[in-house]
Amino acid sequence: MATTEIITVQRRRKYHWPEAQLNFWLVIMIVASSVILGIFAYLTSIQNSLRLGQPWILPYMITTSALMIIFIIIMLGLISQQQLLPGVVVLGSFILFVLWLAGLIETSIQLYGPTGAVNSYCGSRPNTEAINSQQTAVWLANSSLCVDWRAAFAFEIVGTVFLLWMMVMAYQVNRDDFD
Length: 179
Description:
Layout: H1 19-49, H2 57-80, H3 86-112, H4 133-175
């Protein structure tokens, strides 16, 4: 009696990520997320110490930056196991892109908006005739807040663009378009 054996060979597809670009992306996004997380945590602490209300953008960007850092940690784990799938990266990058874009839009409104914008207070200078230490301290604090908002805005632009770039790069990795 003849027996037939069916042997199935499961072949796992390997994805080849461009190492230099991936590492560059990871470093820039860790820096951008950390800077934004720190700036908005600092702004939140200032708002709390002054007993002022918080605009929704402060906890929103803290959460979004923390999610980005968690996503990067997950990516690093998958990279170390050589199981980083382009589909996972595209999905995560798209979700984070939408979150970062919403934060970018609101930050731009807070910074450059029509009424009560942060930037409208940035050009004020203390009265040069009667400068005292209190006026200097107020001017330095005001200047620091302006620089913080501008830095957050700049890093949000960088983060948003880099998330878009990651979606394109993951699509190219999926199609084996890298030479």
